[in-house]
Specification:
The complex is a heterodimer of chains A (191) and B (615). With 191 residues, chain A is mainly α. Chain A has one domain: Orthogonal Bundle (Cytochrome Bc1 Complex, Chain D, domain 2). Chain A is 37% helix and 0% strand. In chain A, helix 4 crosses helix 5. Chain B has a domain of 381 residues. Helices cover 73% and strands 1% of the residues of chain B. In chain B, helix 4 packs across helix 22, helix 18 packs antiparallel against helix 20 and helix 21 packs across helix 22. The termini of chain B are far apart. Classes of the chains: A mainly alpha (191), B mainly alpha (615). Chains A and B meet through helix 1 of A and helix 10, helix 13, helix 14, helix 19 and helix 21 of B.
Chain lengths: 191, 615
């Protein structure tokens, strides 16, 4: 029996479409939901903050889309392993907390040599972390090579609660060439 | 006699009056109207009074309720997002076709006008014949999409109107103009002088392109917003239009539309070829299919470069969005894309190789095909190799990570950029061999010309391979820039070789091309190409839109609807497939209607007349 041409064409169309649908089922299936609001009460302990911070980094903060922990080689963004050790000594006049806070609130101010600019200001949309969420992220970052000291009472520089963040000082340092790690505009981000 | 008529008429009138009065009384009862006397005699019961009070209260409440603007409405069964998704995709597929066909129809008509060869004019007319019905489908689906958006996403649409209202009137006017140009271009084919007709075609293309540019402004704004304050308030509509991805999308879409339109037109020709009864018809539709496919592949070759530009603009706008695309939720989508594009290249090359069978003298190139196939397959496999592999815990431990120790190296951009560039270069060589099959150069410098062409190919391939391998040894910031020399060398090679080839084949000895003498398989390959192009457009439309994730306008207007999540790729591919099948069902109607219009004038082109009708 001769199969009519339109039927053959229809079979081919359905078969090709079916094949591509099948390929679509073979790849990892992940449904990505909007980030949930992180409830943060004032009595959270440092350990709680660290735990929440890690969750934010892999979720709402999208940090691990770019950053790694414990990887080496030709990375596109700084690896965060040991960041707590580097944070206290990377920039003159900056303690660990100020350095980490600046990296998160104003990532374009200081750029680590060898990396490109581009980390978003995570306190603004589309990521839009709250001050307390950034507090938790810093708490987690402090554990990467160091000891978390963040509490809910700590005043985080650059946050709304900070009286006068050292941003102007940081900008001056950039202006006189002492702050950047390279001539190119490259960002360390949260490292 | 007359008196009896009058009597009958009076009886009828009386009866009619009776019926009307009965009806009026019935209606009175329904409206619960009672005359004042009736109220006097029958006082309402306590229950009736309570009911009246209740009704009055309900009326009062209804009058006092405030107007609340709905943010979202739900579409039954499939949900609002899928409804809008499918309507948008169907509209875009038809729009792409309607925008693409006039581009190459005009070029083919111009070739016919310049060369005086009527075959080209007839071919351009036949392509245009497909437009009329497709235009109606485009408009109808566009209206459906608009109504769905207004009905299901009223709040968001209100915001888009706030930003883009100045663009709406020009859009409508241009759409009206497009209808005028399109129908006068089609129906006036044999009515106007050729120059006037070509001007109509040019007008149609310009207006169509302008329409696409305006629509692109709306959708790219949603992805990479500009010209608005952080609150969303409009600062500048012009800045909102000229956002980061506007021009890259304009260019990418224009090229992709031509590739897609060419493939669909080739599928139409293939379908007609398979149904053809006479050698003349087979010859005609074989030629038409070849031209359609040539258009599609010619546009496909530069498409990845336009894609690079678009991707780099996405990164420039937001690294986060760029990484979500390539390294995050959507990274696996690009493996599916690699399979689709690999299939496109394989099928396109296969069609060319099958087509060489109809050209006398093509045998001398047959031995090269196996090498081309090996290279294309190799590139395809590299491109489709993922960086990380889904594996069990034991497998991950054995591999020392989620990447395979050896194959993982093929999953990075250095390898993929190299593969796609070599793939493009190889396909171009296939086309060159096909073109050479029917022609034997007669110029004195033919040998030297061939040697220079070979050297250019070798240089381009070496450049691509060098930067591909070198990319593994440098930092990411340096590596990203390597795509420029890779792409540049391939583009330069294609342009230079084409220029040399044009001069090399001037006055060449031409052999016979036996149009119509090609296997049916080749025609099914053309249909497969059209399905794959369509599916690919659906998939890439999904990723472009999906990149916004839970935002209507990225970082500005958040999606708070129940659909504000990114579905699995499996789900997305199912929606794409259903949409593609609906599109082809609609396309079947378009083809059928187009074939009805042509029943009076079957192709008169004789087989011999098509000899050398090549591009």
């Amino acid at each position: 029996m001769q199969i009519p041409v339109p039927l053959k064409v229809a079979i081919l169309t359905i078969a090709a479409t079916g094949f591509y649908t099948y390929v679509g089922q073979l790849v990892p299936q992940k449904e990505v939901h909007p980030p949930e609001v992180v409830e943060m009460s004032s009595d959270l302990s440092t350990a709680d903050l660290v735990e929440i911070g890690e969750g934010i980094m892999s979720g709402k903060g999208l940090c691990f889309t770019c950053h790694t922990v414990g990887k080496s080689g030709a990375l596109r963004f700084p690896d965060l392993d040991g960041v707590a050790i580097r944070a206290g000594s990377r920039r003159p006049g900056y303690d660990e907390l100020t350095y980490l806070a600046e990296s998160l609130y104003h990532p374009d101010v200081f750029i680590v040599e060898g990396f490109s600019a581009g980390m978003p200001q995570i306190s603004k949309p589309p990521i839009g972390l709250t001050d307390d969420e950034i507090r938790a992220v810093i708490a987690y970052l402090q554990t990467l090579g160091g000891q978390a000291t963040m509490t809910m009472d700590t005043v985080v520089p650059f946050s709304a609660a900070a009286p006068d963040g050292p941003l102007s000082a940081a900008s001056e340092a950039v202006d006189d060439g002492t702050a950047t790690g390279s001539d190119e505009a490259e960002v360390e981000g949260a490292a | 006699m007359k008196k009896s008529y009058i009597l009958i008429a009076l009886v009828v009138l009386l009866a009619g009056a009776g019926v009307v009065s009965e009806l009026a009384t019935f209606m009175d009862g329904r409206l619960a109207y009672e005359s004042p006397q009736a109220i006097d005699h029958e006082a309402p019961t306590p229950r009736e009074l309570a009911l009246q009070e209740q009704a009055a209260e309900a009326t009062k409440e209804a009058q006092e309720q405030p107007y609340v603007e709905e943010k979202y409405r739900e579409f039954p069964v499939i949900g609002s997002r899928v409804a809008v998704w499918m309507a948008a995709q169907l509209h875009l597929l038809f729009a792409a076709f309607v925008l693409a066909v006039p581009i190459f129809a005009l070029i083919i008509e111009l070739i016919g006008y310049k060369t005086g060869d009527k075959r080209y004019d007839d071919l351009a007319y036949e392509f245009t014949k497909l437009l009329s019905t497709a235009f109606s489908f485009t408009a109808t689906l566009g209206a459906l999409l608009t109504f769905l958006l207004i009905a299901l996403y009223p709040h968001f649409m209100n915001y888009l109107m706030h930003v883009f209202s100045p663009t709406f009137l020009p859009y409508v006017l241009l759409f009206f103009l497009e209808a005028v140009f399109l129908y006068s271009y089609y129906y006036g084919w044999h009515a106007f002088s050729k120059r006037v007709h070509l001007c109509l075609g040019l007008g149609l293309n310009l207006v169509g392109t302008a329409i696409m540019f305006i629509a692109n402004a709306w959708l790219t704004f949603m992805m990479t917003p500009a010209g608005v304050a952080a609150s969303g308030a409009r600062i500048s509509t012009w800045e909102a239009v000229t956002n980061y991805t506007w021009m890259p999308i304009n260019i990418h879409r224009m090229i992709a539309n031509v590739a897609f339109g060419g493939s669909v037109a080739a599928a139409y020709a293939a379908f007609q070829f398979l149904k053809a009864k006479t050698p003349e018809e087979r010859a005609h539709y074989d030629w038409m299919g070849y031209i359609g496919n040539f258009v599609a592949i010619a546009a496909l070759l530069p498409l990845p470069f336009a894609g690079y530009w678009l991707a780099s603009e996405i990164y420039a706008f937001s690294q986060t969005m760029g990484l979500t695309m390539m390294g995050g939720a959507f990274s696996w989508l690009f493996i599916i894309q690699a399979i689709l594009i690999g299939n496109l290249f394989l099928a396109a090359n296969y069609y060319l190789w099958l087509g060489m069978g109809r050209i006398e003298g093509a045998e001398r190139f047959r031995s090269y095909i196996k090498y081309l196939l090996i290279v294309i397959t190799g590139c395809f496999l590299v491109w489709a190799t993922p960086r990380s592999i889904l594996a069990t815990v034991d497998e991950v431990q054995a591999m020392g990570g989620s990447s395979h120790p050896a194959l993982g190296f093929l999953g990075v951009m250095s390898a993929k950029n190299t593969a796609v560039n070599i793939l493009i270069l190889t396909t171009y060589i296939s086309f060159l061999l096909y073109r050479r099959s029917g022609r034997i150069p007669t110029v004195k410098w033919a040998k030297a010309g061939n040697a220079v062409q070979f050297a250019i190919f070798a240089l381009a391939a070496t450049t691509v391979l060098f930067f591909g391998i070198y990319g593994y040894f440098v930092e990411a910031a340096v590596r990203i820039k390597f795509s420029v020399p890779q792409v540049g060398s391939v583009l330069a090679a294609m342009i230079l070789v084409t220029v040399i080839d044009i001069f090399l084949l001037r006055g060449a000895k031409e052999t016979e091309t036996r149009w119509g003498q090609i296997s049916n398989t080749s025609q099914y390959v053309l249909i497969f190409l059209a399905v794959t192009f369509t599916w690919l457009m659906g998939l890439m439309g999904y990723v472009r839109s999906g990149l916004r994730q839970h935002w209507h306008v990225y970082g500005v207007i958040r999606d708070t609807s129940p659909d504000a999540f990114t579905p699995t790729l499996g789900f997305a591919t199912k929606v794409v497939s259903v949409t593609v099948l609906i599109f082809f069902a609609f396309l079947g109607v378009v083809f059928w209607l187009a074939s009805l219009g042509g029943k009076h004038g079957k192709p008169e082109v004789a087989v011999e007349a098509l000899d050398g009708g090549d591009v």
